[in-house]
Amino acid sequence: MDAEPEELGFDGQRLERIVPHFRRYVDEGKLPGWTVVVARRGRVAFHAHHGLADMEAGRPVADDTIWRIYSMTKPITSVAALMLYERGLLELTDPVARYIPSFGDLRVYRAGSAVNPGTVPASEPMRIWHLLTHTAGLTYGWHHAHAVDEMYRAKGFEFGCPPGMDLAGACDVWASLPLLFEPGAEWNYSVATDVLGRVVEVASGQRLDAFFAEEVFAPLGMDETAFSVAPDEVDRLAALYTPNPAGGLLRNTAMGDKATREPAVLSGGGGLVSTAADYHRFTQLLARGGELDGVRLLSPHTVAYMTRNHLPGGADLADIGRPISADRTYQGIGFGLGVAVVVDAAAAKTLTHEGEYAWSGLAGTAFYVDPAAEVTAMFFTQALPSPRTAPIQPQLRTLVNQALVD
């Protein structure tokens, strides 16, 4: 820790409630192990581990454990796009087709089956801000909620991409499939940030991994964040687990081992691995308005703009969103440029403050930044899908904020 909790306005005994609360999820076989980090005003007030990073090997969670952060990649890709926006290399209103021509002839689903869908031409171009806000009309195959989701799966897109395909090829296939709705009309969690990653490549003239490494990770000192784990560091990678119908957890080798190989598709929507220390530096960049240790990636005005609600008409996700998770509230939550934003804490029924922004990952990782309280918090585990029997995100907020006493 950087400071005693009391120095930062926390009641240390109340903050310690985090440990027994989340420990029981390990004891009940719902999580293999976890790490929690809570900071205020840039100083770590609480840092704890419990359980195992690898249950079969008996390897405990440690400070240097490497985690698959899945969709916590998305805010990093969004920051990269906004860096290019600040440099005048793209506009938020630019049509995506300016960078990926296959998005120039979009059609929108109206009726029918996945085999024989009825579609109409899109009346509005898909724009960069649609990608950043998940209002593009794209989807994920793993939603299993719509005929278009089924079409994604039929093309080989569920939890990954077909073998032999790169990011440019994946984008062309997604552009050929119908949109769920007119761009800008609704919110649906989707491959939009993967498409945004391809826009970053075209606008910058660099592969996404190179842009991240040179423009984001090296300046921030995020030396252990990448699209795969180096061969000599594999023994630090947490194992990936899924629920066992009979109780407990099963190791998911098929998905878990992907992190040990360089991917063909550089997924800006979910491809990174990282450590708690590295991702902490990214949260501090955001909390400090785009600057950390003398390195500035974004203007504070851009970060403020990124972390306000950009949904049409000031709507929240309950108004125009398509639900994707049972443990995430939609009332009182808007969406900014790459992050969810609390617009009404009372409506959200979560102990937090308006203006808090956050996102999470498929295997149970989560973070939030609360500017009003000057608090950041992170949770790391590797249980796939994000465990609905363990409502990590709202409980983490409650446990942190009930300990905040100044």
CATH architecture of the largest domain: 3-Layer(aba) Sandwich
CATH topology of the largest domain: Beta-lactamase
Sheet with most strands: strand arrangement: 3-2-1-16-15-14-13-12
Radius of gyration: 20 Å
Distance between the termini: 19 Å
List descriptors.
single chain, 406 residues, alpha+beta, Beta-lactamase, 2 domains, eight-stranded antiparallel beta sheet, two-stranded antiparallel sheet, 16 strands, 29% helix, Diverse_Enzym_Activities
In terms of topology, how is this protein built?
Layout: H1 12-15, H2 18-27, E1 33-40, E2 43-54, E3 59-60, E4 67-68, H3 74-86, E5 107-112, E6 117-121, H4 128-133, H5 147-154, H6 167-176, H7 192-204, H8 208-220, E7 241-243, E8 249-251, H9 253-256, E9 273-274, H10 276-287, E10 291-292, E11 295-296, H11 300-306, H12 317-320, E12 333-335, E13 340-342, H13 345-348, E14 357-360, E15 366-370, E16 375-380, H14 392-401
Antiparallel strand pairs: 1-2, 1-16, 2-3, 4-9, 5-6, 7-8, 10-11, 12-13, 13-14, 14-15, 15-16
Helix pairs in contact: 3-7
Description:
This protein is of the alpha+beta class. The chain folds into two domains: 5-81 and 207-401, 3-Layer(aba) Sandwich (Beta-lactamase), CATH 3.40.710; 92-204, Methane Monooxygenase Hydroxylase, Chain G, domain 1. The chain is 29% helix and 17% strand. It has helices spanning 12-15, 18-27, 74-86, 128-133, 147-154, 167-176, 192-204, 208-220, 253-256, 276-287, 300-306, 317-320, 345-348, 392-401, and strands at 33-40, 43-54, 59-60, 67-68, 107-112, 117-121, 241-243, 249-251, 273-274, 291-292, 295-296, 333-335, 340-342, 357-360, 366-370, 375-380. The strands form five sheets. An eight-stranded antiparallel β-sheet has the order 3-2-1-16-15-14-13-12, sandwiched between helices. Helix 3 packs parallel to helix 7. Residues 21-400 form the Beta-lactamase-related domain. This is CubicO group peptidase (Beta-lactamase class C family).
